[in-house]
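GPI ethanolamine phosphate transferase 2
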Amino acid sequence: MLFRAISLLICQLVAILTFAIGFFPQKSVLTGDSEFLYMPEEHKPMEPQFEKMVVMVIDALRSDFLFQANVSGFHFVHDLINKGEAWGYTAYSNPPTVTLPRLKGITTGSMPNFLDAILNVAEDDTSSNLKDQDSWLSQLHKHGKRIHFYGDDTWLKLFPSHFFQRSDGTNSFFVSDFEEVDRNVTRHLPYDLSYQEWDILILHYLGLDHIGHKGGSASQFMFPKHIEMDAVIKDIYDAVDERTLVCVLGDHGMNDMGNHGGSSAGETSAAMVFISKKLANYKAPEAQRGVQVPLINSDGDYQYLTRIQQVDIVPTLVSLFNFPIPQNSVGIIIKDFLPLLGTFAEIKVKDNFRQLMKLANNTPEFAGASIDMLLEQMKITQDDLATAATNYNYIFLIIGLSILCFITIIISCEFYRTFKQTKILSLTVAISLSLGLSMFSSSFVEEEHQIWWWILTAAVGISWVMNPSLTWDHFLVSVCARLIRGWNNSGQKYIYENTIYQILERYPNTKWLINAATMFLVAFETVEFNLMTFVSSFVTVTLCLAYKGCWTLVNEGLVPNWLQAFVNMTCSFLIGPDNMLKEALVPLARLCFQSILASIVFRVCYNRFKSSPKTLQSIIPLINTILVLQTSPSNIPLFLLFTVMKIAINRILTNLSSNDLSQISCILSLIMQNFTFFQFGGTNSIATINLTNSYNGVSQSYNIYVVGFLTFISNFAPVIYWSLNLIEVYQEPNKKHTYLVERLPILFHYSVTGVFLLISCLALRYHLFIWSVFSPKLCYYIAWSILINGLLEHLFNPLLLTVTNK
C-alpha cells in the first residue's frame, strides 16, 4: 500500500508537468534581421532624426509616479513636459508584468510569453536569449552604433556581450538594497556624459522597484527615489544636445503592495516620456496640449495623457533612426512622431503596415488608404496579434491530461475502498468537487479565499452540531478564523480599508508587544522546562525579536523606544559597537538561523538519548520560530491566533477515536493550509509573491537556491505551520506507519481539482484571462503539488516522523 501511494504521487506529478510542458512552450519567433518591406530604396535618402539616444529604464515606474500630483517627485520632467520639450505617455505593459518579458517587448516589440515570467527568476537561464532574434539593439549594432549599458543584468542575459562596448550589470533580485544598486549605475555617468564615446546609452535603475517590494507603492522611500531619478534625468538633459533623444520609461508598474506580475491597472500602466530640445519645435501630443503636469487623476485608473502600447516604442525608435522594424514587432509608430519624419512619414507608416500584415499572415492592401486609415487597421491587427494564443503543444496537453484522469480514477477507487466507512469520504469529495468546479470561473479563481472561508465555516458548524458539549472550543476557533479573515486584503478583485494589518501599523507599540508575546508563545509552546531547552528557546526568541526590530528600523518603519534600545544593545553586544544597523542585518539573521538549527540538533540528540517520546513536540516550536522569522512584522500576530486555534482544535479532536483522529487531522490540515495561505496575503496571482523576506541573511552575492528556499518559506509559512502542527497524532506507535497511507484524501483532492483545472485551461485557452488568471493558477497548482504535497507532506514530514520516533 505504501509503495502504491508513492507511485500514484509520482505519476500525478509527471502528468501535471507533462501538461505544463505543452501549455507553456517556448514561443516560436522569426529569426534573423529584418529589412525594409515597402519600397526599400525610398528609405535610403532619409536622414536620421537623432544621432544619439539615451534609454533610461526605471524599473516599475508606474504612470502616477511620473504624472500624478501629490505622488510624483519628478519636478524637472514636469517642467520639460509643460515646455513641450518632453512628451509623456501611459504605456500599457502586457502581462505578465515582470522584467524579462517586458524587456523583450521593449526591445523586440513582441508579445510576452508567460514562460518568461517563470524564467525571470532563473539567474543562470539562457533560454530567453535574444541573440538570434531581431531587435532595435541588434539593428543598431548591425549598423555600427556604439552601445554602453549599465544596470539590471537581465539585459546581459538577453543580448550577446559583443553588442556592448562598455557594460556593468547589477543583480536585479537583491531587493533588500535600493541605494547601492542605483549608485552602481549613476557612478558611470560623469565619464560617459563628459566624453560621450557612445551612440546609445542604456541605463536600467532597480531601486524604485526594490522599494516597492520592500514597503509598497506608498513607501516613505518612494518620493526621495523620485527626486534622485529626476536629478539623474536633469544631468543627462543638461549634458546632451537636441540631436540626442532621451527615453525614460518603466518596464511595468506595480500594485499597492509594491508587487507586480499580474494584470491590474497599476501593474500594466507604466510611464513613458520622450525628451529632447528638438521636440519643442513640433506640436505636442493632443492630450498634452493645454494641460499642466503634474495632473490630478481621481479615477484611480492610472491613465494619464496619451495611452499607447508599450511595444509601440520599437517601430517609433527605429523609424526615427531610419532602421527596419524588427520582424516580431507588433508595435505601431506613435502618431505624434510622424511630423518629425516629414515627407517620409507615409513611407514609414506603410512599411510598418506591411511588416504587421506579414506577421499576421495577411495580405497588405493600402491602395488609396490614408495614414489615419492605415493606423486604424494596424490597431485592429495589433489587438488580434496581442490576443492570439501561444502555439500550444496539444500532444503533451492530451498526454498529461489523460495520465492525470487515469491516475485520478485509480486514486478515487483506492480512496473509496480504504475510507468508505469513515467520516471524511463525503467531506473530501464535497471539498474537491466544489473547488474543482470553481476552476471554470475566472472570478472564483481570483477570489478562491472566499471558497476556503466558507469551507472552514461549514466544517466548524458541522463539528459543533456533532459535538455541542465543546461549544467554547468551537467558539474560539470561529473567533480566531474571523480575525484571521479580516487581517489582510485577500483576493485580487477588491481592496478593503482598515484591515487589522493596517490598524496595527498605526499603533507600533501595541503591534510590537503582540509580536514579542507571539514569538515567546510560539517558541515555548510544548517545551519541557529544563534548563537547556529553556535557554535555547529564550536565546532564539531574543535574537529573532532583535532581528525583526533591526529590519524594521533599517527600513524606517515605526518601532517603540523600548524595542529600539533593545535592538541597539543586542547589535552592539553581538556584532560590535562600530557596526551600523544596516550592516548588522545579515550577520544577525544568520545568527538567528544558526541558533535555531543548533537547538533543533541538540533537542533531537538529547531526546533520543533520553528515549523521550516528545522529540517532535520539542522541535516543532523551533521550526515555527523559523516561520515567524520569515514573516513580515505585521503578520506575526497571526501565529498567536494560529496557536490559540490549534489548542482549541486539539481539544475538539481528543473526543475522536484513534482512526478518526488521524483522518480528520489530515483533511483539517488541508483546509487550514489553504485558508491561512490566502488570509496571509497570498492569491493565485504572481503579483503577490512576496520577496520581502527572501534575503534574510543573504549577502550581496545572489544565490537562487538560498533565495528560492527563503521565498518558499516566507510565502508558504502558514501552510508549513498547519502541515507540521497537525501531524503529532502520528507519534503514536500504532500510527507512525500509516502516515503516507492516510495521505490518500489529500492525493484525491489534488488529483480531482487538478483534472478540473487542466480541463479548464484547455477549454479556455482562448479566453481573455487565460494568461492573467488561469495560467498563474496553473503555476500555483504545480507549486502546491510539488512543494507542498510532494516535498513537504510526502518527504519532509515522514522524514521528520522517522527522525523523532524512538
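thats it. The two ends are 23 Å apart (CA to CA). Residues 394-804 form one domain. bye
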